[in-house]
Amino acid sequence: MESAAQYNGSDMSITSASIRMQSPELVLFGKVGLSEGTTPLNFYGKLVLAFGIGLCFFVQDSLFIILLTSPKHGVLEENVGKTVANINIFDLIVRLASGPITGVILDRFGRRPVVVIGCILLAAGIATMPYMPSIYPHLVLNRALIGLTSGLVIQAPLIADYTHNDYKGRVAGITSLFMLGGSVIGGIFLQRMLKHVPLEFLYSFYASGLVIISAICAATLRGGIYHVQNEKSPRTNSRSMIEDIMTGFKIAKKVPWILITFVVGFLSGGEIPLIAGLFILWVQTFYGKDKTSRDEANSRATLLNLCIKTSVLIMTVTLSALADKISKFILLIPGFIFVFLGFLGVILVQSPQSWLTVISVVTIGLGFGTIMIMSGYLSARYSPKEHRGKVTGAQSTLRVFGTIMSTVVGGYMFDMVTKDAPYMMFITFSAIGLIIVLRLFFTRGEWEARSETSGIEAQPIHQEIG
User: In this structure, are strands 25-26 and 31-32 parallel, antiparallel, or unpaired?
Assistant: First the structure.
């Protein structure tokens, strides 16, 4: 019988016990098997959260670049890459330090209160950003606040908590569909309104959306505190914070699927800024510096970003039906190849107006969609159940390293080497990721069966790591 977590009715906490798959309930896009203690309302609340993150949060990277180059701050084109890198250093240090801690907090104090508080604090950071009087230190501190609070919202492992193993691939696809759908709608709204309303209005709009999302999460997400009750291992509940943090990384040594999750997490952490913030800067280099030309560049960059997000949506719908049914390698290997070829195409074409660039960014979206879906699916499917928060915390740390490479290192390379340097860097990383996945593919006979067991039976993994 599978080992997992269920509600204890006496204290509303979650204890380590057997999970019994409920009869699949018709919730959305067919039937989904929910874990015991999870209601359809909880599941819908998770989808609303995913939609809200896409709608109100993911667009803020694009808005941030536009804010820096606006008359308020007036960062020159030749300095904007370094400025973004300098600001993001502090943001990423906060994310790097807080990611594993956030994972532990999610396990110790429960998903719902952490997510609700995170949404409110994130809304406050986004709403106040356009009113910051200076870049240093005001915008720097504001970005650090957003980096800290976004982890509280994004890292919650709700897919793993709410669904049965046989449905986690489908649910990962559905969740990403809602998240990307929100991102597309948010991007369309941004493109339509950018020339007609002040930036302050746009920031306030997205912040208000997060406040509404926090209220919905408070009413719909499942309550309770996630902890482990293990009589055979008395030091389980007396672990130090450092031990809990390191647990997430140690699991990757035992479960190669989690290692793959960390690899794709690193790439996705770097690719999001590349196709949002730095992509706008790349497009701007092909246009003039007057306001009309800059508005045209921002509009074109937003349109290309929408092409990427639309192709991600297409891949999301496809993978939600396939992830549970076919070999994960059949999905992962083409994903890395698509990312490699897409970025290579952008570099070779050198024209944001060309249809070849549109084809290249669509290819990036197909690859990125595959990587993103598989990252969420593998983490939910193979994380030991009492350590889900810790695994997502470790994955968040690797994602931050990817973001550091694209925004900090890539930002300096953009200004000091060539505008194509960040894309060249991630072409290399995609190739390395492909090599790692291929190596695991050819040695899968040695570990795949053990990984399957490890992902379902939490107790043996806990004893190995303990």
Answer: antiparallel
Dihedrals φ, ψ of 163, to 5°?
Answer: -125, 155
**Can you say how many angstroms the Cα of residue 414 is from the centroid of all Cα atoms in its chain?**
24
Q: Tell me the CA distances in angstroms from 265 to 77, 236, 328, 375, 429, one per residue in order.
A: 30, 28, 16, 6, 12
**64 with 355: CB under 8 angstroms?**
no
Q: In the beta sheet, which residues pair with residue 5? A: 16
Residue by residue, what is the 3-state secondary structure of 299-343? HHHHHHHHHHHHHHHHHHHHHHHHCCCCCHHHHHHHHHHHHHHHH
Going by the DSSP 8-state scheme, the letter that residue 285 receives in this structure is T
290 token code pair:
């007057």
Residue-by-residue pLDDT tens, the chain, 466 positions? 333 333 333 333 333 333 344 444 645 666 777 887 888 888 889 999 999 988 887 677 777 877 887 777 777 666 776 787 777 777 777 777 777 788 778 878 888 999 999 999 999 999 999 999 888 888 888 888 887 888 888 888 888 788 887 777 778 778 878 887 887 788 788 878 877 888 889 899 999 999 999 999 999 998 765 543 333 333 444 455 666 667 777 777 777 778 888 887 787 776 666 666 677 778 888 887 777 787 788 778 878 877 887 887 788 777 766 766 777 788 888 888 998 999 899 899 888 889 898 899 889 888 888 887 777 777 777 777 767 777 777 777 777 777 777 777 777 787 788 888 888 888 888 888 888 888 888 877 766 555 455 443 333 333 333 3
**Cα–Cα dist 385/279, whole Å:** 38
SS3 annotation, 414-433? HHHCCCCHHHHHHHHHHHHH
- Cβ-contact 309, 392 below 8 angstroms: no
Task: Round to whole Å and give the CA distance between 224 and 212.
Answer: 22
- Give the Cα separation of 353 and 297 in Å (integer): 10
Angle, CA 211 vertex, CA 407 and CA 40 arms, to 5°: 100
Rounded CA separation 367/338 (Å): 5
Q: Tell whether pTM > 0.70.
A: no
